[in-house]
Each structure stands twice: as C-alpha cells, then as structure tokens.
Amino acid sequence: MALALAVGIVVASGRGPAKLRSAASSSQTAGVSSSAVNPNCAIIVPANPLTAKGLATPYQLTGPAGTSPAASGCQMINSINLGAFVQATILDPRTGALSVYNPLVITEGTKPAIAPVVPKLPADAIVTIDFGFNGTTLFQVGATPQALAQGRCTDGEPGSPFGQVSFCNGTAFFDAAFKMERAGRLIVPSAGTSRRMVATAAGMGTGRECPTTRNFDMVDQDPSDNVTTRYLFNPVTGQTAQDDAANAARMKGDPLLVNGSDNALIDDFLDPALGCTPFEAPDLGNNGALTTSQALDELLAAANQPRNAALVPENDEMVLDNGGAFDAAKTDLYRSEIGQAPVDGLTDSSSSPAMFCQNMVDIQTPFLEANQNLLAAWPSPVPTVGDTLFTFMANRLASSFDNLGCQGFGLAQPVSVVVNGAGAATAATLNTDRQSAGF
After folding, report:
1. Which of 298, 316, 351 represents a domain boundary (last residue)?
2. Same domain for 245 and 385?
C-alpha cells in the first residue's frame, strides 16, 4: 500500500515524540530488536473483547502467519514503523452516555509495565473497538477460537484485508447510536465555528464551520483511519502501559508511542489551529478525564455532515480488492464499521472515485490557500513531510492526489512543493482553479 508521506502521521504529544534511539540501545536487555524489515504484523485479540475483562486484557502484537515478534520486528519498540493501537468507545443504551477506553497493546511474550485499569462498563454496554497500525497491514488473530466472533471483529474481506485498520462491533455500535440520536436520547454537539481569535501569531481563525473527518477541507487518500490512542513506553524493558495520569507519574520521563492518524491530525493539530474543539467523552481508564476517539469523531462528522461529504471512496487502497480493482462490498464493510452510508447513487454524488478526487481538489486546495498563514504558524505533525502544518497538509494533498489516481479522471495536480535535502516540504504553491472530473 502506498501509504507513505502522511496517511500514517506521527503525532507529537505534550511530552514529546517517542525517543526510540534510546530504546534500541537497550534492546538486548529487553529481549527485543529494532531492526524490522517486515511491513505486516498480527494482533492477538483477547477472548470476549467487548466485555470489561476483555478490554482490560492486553492485546498482543506479534508476527504475521505465526512468525515471532523478534523474527518479524513486530514489537512495540518498533512503534514508529510497526506499532499497533486499540481504542474502544462505549455507549450506555439506557442514558445515551458515551465513554472511551484505550486497551493496552504489548509485544507478545512481554508483560505490561503497569497492569491496565479494568473499566467499569454500564449495564448492557454497546462497545465498538477500532484498531490502528503504523505499518502496512495488521491482521486480527483470536486468542481463542471464538474471540473474533465474540467481538464481531473484522480486518476486511476473506483474503483481502483493509491494511492499517480493523474493527470490532462497529456496525452495531453506530446503528444503536444513530437510533438513539433520532429518538433524542443521544446528543452529539455541533461542530462549532472556527472562531475569529484576537490577533496572535496563530492568525485570526476562519470564521467558518469547524471541519470534521468528513470534510474535504482535511481528508486524504484514505479518510477516517487509525486512532487517537497513546501508550507510555519503558525504553529499558520494552514494556508499555496505558497513558493515564497515575502511570505517567510512575513512568515520568518515559516517551509516548502514538498512532499515525487522520483523527489525531484533526483533534490535535487542526482543531487547535482553527480554534475548534473536538468531541470528547470520559476516559474509563483515566479517572474520567475527557478524551477523544475515532468513533467520537465519526459521530460528530455524521451529525454535522456537509452536503459534499467525504466518505471512504472505492479508490482508497484500503478497500481495493487484491487485484487493485474497486470493490463495493469491501468499501461498504469498511464504511459500516465507522457509521458511513454504503456505496450508492447518493453517496457517489460526492464520494465516487472521480468525485472524491474532484472535491478534494476543488475544496481542500482553496481552504489551504486561504488559511496558509494561519496553518504555517502551527507545528507540523511530521516534520519529515512538511516543516509546518501548512506544508504538511499541502504535501499530503499532493501525495493523496497521486495515490488515488486522480490524474486518471482528467484532473491536474493542484500542488507544487519545494523540498529540502531531507525531502520535507518547506514551501508549496497551490493552483485553486476549479476542475471537473471526466467520467
């Protein structure tokens, strides 16, 4: 999968990015290696994953097709290239209350640095679990023969995985959430407006509605992928722990491992830059502190969906079949797990392969151009891709145009970037002329 550049971004945290050079130097002590060359891994899903016990049981990262973590490099010490992350969002069917819990991922054969918190779930809780991966393909493997069926888990169609992402029980979760919304029992906030802030180095805001994960202002070649989960990492032992206040105090100075995520891009970078606020809910693993999640972002996007909605298109590499052809059934499976409508004439009006490309060019390009100064004042999620948030977004748009094959629909590349010796964009020129896709 051509996911390089920025589909999997590495998100800087408040305590700084993972410092894996120090981890690698202690790999022999930890019994792990940092010389990974394999792009694919497997994740072992615990029994009864939708229960409190299942959520609190660590998921295990291991090699694909039965290979060991050491032989494959599928270890959390290699998180920048092969880290796996899990995130649960919980719906109380009686009250409509939402909450979040981030199950821990450990390297198979290791133990947690600190035992995970066991969440207290509401009665008859409806749980969705989202998986993210910093490599190419993450395969789900059940810890027991029944585990994947118990969780209604899927990593794609048989023999045709999605790639970086997979899910458990997403369809049931969103069906229940949307039903409760229609009944007025679940309230999802408005996306809000990018406030016109007082003059600062960050700019003046846009005065427009805040973007969501279904806005063409911010989407890339594979929208709505990966999670906002972060883990604490002990570079001496190679062990991981949940990122909560108590663990952070005990592991003070240890780095955070993060998932390259469209959701983290909007929650941690675009929203602050635009003066917007992400949808948050109490974290059951962190004493109820408010936090984000992929499913919360999708609920917000669905409730505030624009007329030209950016839904997962059939030319997204994650939903192509093994031969590289469009696969409507696989696209529908992915969409159903994140609460999106299936492929049909209505959704094709904005998100068919051709229209997704056209809208991405005609909507995102002028958005970036109009807000260039504002975005240039904010840090880049991945400095090796772009040296500011603006150059990162511009380079990401250029890459998405190419990887979606947008030129095949009669469209022209709208971005020209200047890169430094390391390949990071340092400047970008945008062509905002409107274009029309050929069909």
Report:
1. 351
2. no
Whether residues 192 and 301 share a domain: the answer is: yes
Digit-coded pLDDT (tens) for 240-254 = 999 999 999 999 999
Of 321, 351, 381, the residue that ends a domain is 351
Cα gap 9→14, rounded to integer Å: 16
Per-residue tokens: 369: 């151009």
In a domain, 82, yes or no: yes
Check if the beta carbon of residue 327 is closer than 8 Å to that of residue 272: no
Q: What is the DSSP string of 201-234?
A: TTB---SSBPP-TT-TTT--SS-S-S---EEEEE
Share of the chain above pLDDT 70, in %: 88
Task: Please indicate, yes or no, if residue 10 is contained in any of the structural domains.
Answer: no
CA-to-CA distance for 258 and 76, rounded, in angstroms? 11
Q: Are residues 277 and 378 in the same domain?
A: no
Tell whether 313 and 327 lie within a shared domain: yes
CA distance 369 to 373: 9
> Are 150 and 253 in the same domain?
yes
> Which stretches within 123-237 are classed as H helix?
147-150, 170-182
CA–CA separation, 35 vs 51, rounded Å?
36
Are both 123 and 108 inside the same structural domain? yes
The alpha carbon torsion through 68, 74, 78, 83 (nearest 10 deg) reads: -150
Q: DSSP letter string over 267-307?
A: IIIIHHHHT-----EEBTTTTT-EE--HHHHHHHHHHT--S
Domain hosting 415: range is 353-439
Contact of 153 with 49, CB cutoff 8 Å: yes
Q: How many domains is the chain partitioned into structurally? A: 2
| Calpha distance 434→117 (Å, rounded) | 52
* Cβ pair 62, 41 in contact under 8 A: yes
Q: Give the tens place of pLDDT for each residue, 293-339.
A: 999 999 999 999 999 999 999 999 999 999 999 999 999 999 999 99
